Every structure is written in C-alpha cells, then in structure tokens.
Fold this protein.
Amino acid sequence: MADAVVLLSGGLDSYTAAAMARADGYRLYALTVRYGQRHARELAAARAVAAWLGVVRHLEVDVDLSVFGGSSLTTDAPVPKDRPLEGGDIPSTYVPARNTVFLALALGWAEALGAEDIFIGVNALDYSGYPDCRPEFLAAFERLAALATARGVAGGAFHVHAPLLQLSKAEIIRAGIALGLEYGMTHSCYDPDSTGRPCGRCDSCRLRAAGFAQAGVADPLLGR
C-alpha cells in the first residue's frame, strides 16, 4: 500500500478527493493549513473529516498568508455575494499563490515520508476563476517537484493527483455519495456568521447548493 499526502481543507471537494485516494488503496497523510482564513470554521470540519477517513496522521500547519493581504478571505474586505458565476474575472476570494504554497508544503512532507503522491481537490469545471486550479498549473508543479527535490535529482518523481479536476459539482457529490461520505461534516462557506452558519450567498455556498440540486439530493449540512 502506497502513502499519499492529501491536502484537506474541511470542504466538500478535498474530502471527496481524499476519499477517492483512500478507495484507490492509498494510506492517507492529511495536511491542513491555517493560513489566516476568515472562514476558520473549516478547520474543525477538517479534523472531523480526517477522523472519518481514518488518516494515518493529520498535520495542521500555520502559514499566515493574511500578512500579505490581497484577498477578501484573509482581510476585512467584503466577500462578494450574489455575483454572476460565469464571468471570466478572478474574484477577490482568490488568495495569492495559495495552492502553490499548499502544494509546496505537501511536497516537503511527501519527500520526508518517502511518498510519491499528493492529492488536491481542485476543480476546473465549476467556475472559480482561480489560476491555480488549472491543469496547466498542476503539470507545471510536477515539473518543479522533479527539479527542486533530492528525490527528483535522483531520478524519482512526484505525482499531483486532482481527481475532481474535470468533474462538475454534481458529479463530485454523486461520487462522494457512492463512497458513503458524510457531507454534513464539511464546511464550504467563505463568510459564515459567528456560529459557523453558512451565508448562502457567497460563490462557494451557491456552487455547493447548485451541485446538490443538480445531483438531486439534499445537502445534509442544511437539511434541504
């Protein structure tokens, strides 16, 4: 059985990607990053998801990207609500270089573990507008990993798996249900209230709601 590092945010996508890795026979080492996100409620969700998945180890790492600013997820800038989801602009919820930083951390842990595989729950079909969710980025990171590590210099390779990359949100949800996932444990909202209740109006909430509706199942987090 091979080891894999999985980036686990506590959201629906990363949970599903990790479960797919487990179903493929990988032993999971889960990595969650506290990066100064305003929706820190997802950290508790990540712990619950990691326990459900039975990961070998779950690390929570502090890398405070809020010191740089540049995103409504790490500053006091308002999170966009009720905006069109089909545009081509990069929304203010984009965190500069976030997935590059996350994958670099996952790469460091994978090399220390002697693992070749990293799983990330990025998705290119459901609109996000984030440049670091594109297949070109993931392929470029694999090339970087081969150049930047002792394992790569010795002829080894690292593989960045993004099993959700070409799936719609509804397809992701159906796949997760088929794996028996408990989506009521997850958290998706970018701007929850003080009790952790989702706003229902940010991009992430609306994409999640549309996915469950299109999948023809109720969202267990909301009971509808």
Summary: The chain has one domain: 3-215. The chain has a mean pLDDT of 94. The CA atoms of residues 129 and 183 lie 24 Å apart. The helical segments are 12-23, 41-53, 98-113, 135-148, 150-153, 169-178, 203-215.
